[in-house]
Design brief:
Elements lengths: L13 H4 L11 H6 L16 H5 L5 E4 L2 E4 L9 H5 L4
Antiparallel strand pairs: 1-2
Length: 88
Amino acid sequence: VETKVALVQCRGTAKSAGEKAEYEGIPTCAAADLVAGGGRSCRYGCLGLGDCARACDYGAISVRDGLAVIDPKRCRACSRCIAACPKH
């Protein structure tokens, strides 16, 4: 039986994804997404403000260099991060 874990398909770090605008509003992904889809140039990419990390009860998500990173040893595939992410 294969264990399921969350997966962040985006590989665009804060430096490599590029920014189309500087977002200075409420520091949540949900709020940033409401303003033209967030500040990143990739419309599907991780916004890096940590809504998913705050939603995770297992401490399996951290944000590094503007990108959510999953710790597969802690992830329980509960899907709370998916529900919290406006780019899921």
